[in-house]
Amino acid sequence: MGLREQFTEAMKASMKAGDSATTSTIRMVIAKLKDTDIATRDLTNPEVPQQADDEAIASMLRSMIKSRRESVSMYRQGGREDLAAKEEAEIAVISRFLPREMDEEEIKAAIAVAIVEANAKTPKDMGKVMGVLKVKHGASLDLGKAGPLVKAALAG
How far apart are CA 41 and CA 68, in angstroms? Predict the structure, then answer.
């Protein structure tokens, strides 16, 4: 089952359960997904409907989580625990739809393989390695975490 179908099923289940917080968060995700679909549209051929693929959707979900984590930090600095808790609850709902992320050891192993595949030797080759990682592990790898590890691997 693709992510789109998962959103629909989760929305139905949360509505039946009367879980308004989860329903609201999933509605937000679906609205953001429509924006993402519009952004991926081919303007040269607008007649053909296009939808973001699961990798683009996973990227969208990660960006939604990142923005909420930043909000949690700001709310806590401002002494607004109630709003921070609401954002954390949204993060929990959004996270359910993402594949399990690789841990640091798995990331390092993937980086080692990507360096060999990209034939990377210096930090100037970092873009090649990141490209290989994105293609092979895009859905389960946080490229923000991988970047510094790739840089360190190529420098050392």
Answer: 26
**What domain count does the chain have?**
2
Which domain does 33 fall in, by range?
3-95
Residue 12 tokens read as 């139905």
pLDDT digits (tens, 9 = 90+) for 20-42: 999 999 999 999 999 988 887 77
pLDDT score of 80 more than 90:
yes
Buried b (16+ CB within 10 A) or exposed e, 11-30: beebeeeeeeebbebbeebe
Domain boundary residue, one of 95, 125, 143: 95
For residues 108 and 75, membership in a common domain is answered with no
Give pLDDT tens digits for 55-77. 788 888 988 999 999 999 999 99
Domain boundary among 59, 74, 95: 95
Q: Tell me the pTM.
A: 0.71
